[in-house]
Amino acid sequence: MLTVDPHPLLDPVAFTSTFPAPLGDLPAPEWLQALLKPGATAPLQSDDAVRGAVRDLLRHGGYKPTGRGKPASEYLVRASGDGTLNTINAAVDACNAVSLHSGLPISVVDLDRAKAPFRVATAIQGDSYVFNASGQTIDLEGLLCLFDTEGPCSNAVKDAQRTKTDPTTRRTLTLIWGTRELGDRTARAFAWYRELLERLGATVERVG
Fold first, then answer.
1. Measured distance CA(72)–CA(102) in Å, rounded
2. Domains, the chain, with CATH or none
3. Where is the B3/B4 tRNA-binding domain (predicted)?
4. What is the Cα–Cα distance from 42 to 196, expressed in whole angstroms?
5. Which of 5, 9, 17, 131 has its CA 20 to 30 A from that of 208?
6. What is the mean pLDDT of each run of 10 residues along the chain (208 residues)?
7. Alpha helices per DSSP H over 30-126
8. Nearest to 12, CA basis, from 181, 123, 176, 153
9. pTM (2 d.p.)
10. Which of 65, 45, 89 is nearest to 138 (CA)?
């Protein structure tokens, strides 16, 4: 289902989640929403060393992870701090909570919109995709991406619009963009993530 091209820094964890109902019928419970607030108690905390290691991971292929192209996990820190990290649904909120506190970017794609098999590789010149409903695109050259049969569909910065979850989603593929520079942080993030999802009634299966 998933292959990963050799990479000296990448330490990914990928898994599927099957939810008991469409995401539109699964609002995040209060305990999960509380994890999106500044100062929430969590088993992992991010810091400057984590942020630097994640940027080094994305920089390896020639990508520049700065400005609007910085890792998604950094946006979450800012949004949580200024109170704009709002609840979306149980699946997205769980992703955001783990990414916020671990400092690791995380991609989530709808398994019924993306087309297997999947591959993790560095995007080449000319690779791009639309990342929001208004049609904005991101240039992917040099950036680690998840590819399906149609091309790149997610990465540690912005996920493609064509494979994003929506209210009808029941099955997802998640990829934690971890780095070997941070030891067992990816595994620890996955363990906590799995606990959250199973508490929400989801079935989690590791892949790759």
1. 12
2. 2-207 (3.50.40.10)
3. 53-202
4. 11
5. 131
6. 98 99 96 94 97 98 94 96 93 97 98 98 98 97 98 98 97 99 99 99 96
7. 30-34, 48-59, 72-82, 90-102
8. 176
9. 0.97
10. 65
User: Which amino acid is residue 19, in one-letter code?
Assistant: F
Q: What is the pLDDT of residue 39?
A: 86
If you write DSSP's letter for every residue of 170-191 in order, what string do you get?
A: -EEEEEEEEEGGGTTHHHHHHH
**With contact defined as beta carbons under 8 Å apart, do 32 and 94 qualify?**
yes
Pairing of β 10-18 and β 203-207: antiparallel
Question: Residues 104, 177: contact at Cβ < 8 Å?
Answer: yes
Instruction: Say if residues 164 and 95 touch (Cβ distance below 8 Å).
Output: no
If one counts every other C-beta atom within 10 angstroms of the C-beta of residue 67, the result is 6
* Helix, strand, or coil (residue 85): coil
CA dihedral in degrees (171, 15, 117, 5; nearest 10)? Answer: 150
